[in-house]
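Batch manifest, entry 17 of 40.
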Amino acid sequence: MFSGVGDSLETPLTTLTTEQATATAGQAVFVERDAGHCVLCHRIDSLSAPFQGDLGPVLTGVGSRLSPAQIRFRLVDPSRLNPDTIMPSYFKTGPLHQLPEQYKGKPILDAYQIEQLVIYLSSLKG
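Output type: structure tokens
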């Protein structure tokens, strides 16, 4: 699967093309319901999106607080840092229970979407 050091996952999950490697693409994953829909639980002050959540931490300036490797680790499997987290492990494929057959063995987000989120969240400075 993946191997992190401490609270970081240094190696990107995949290589993105220039067209894929944009903060705009990552922002879409953050906001869109059919993607990460991170906005359901998190808020970013500069983001123009309705109904931003407050279950998770505010992510305004997260790129100043965490490295891309730390952000990646928290997206891939946050339960390895905090077993009690309610945040889903977006790249974990098991052991998961009570999933419909079409979702078994598949991550919530693919490697491209994870890396797009890393680029977007890393761009949020100050």
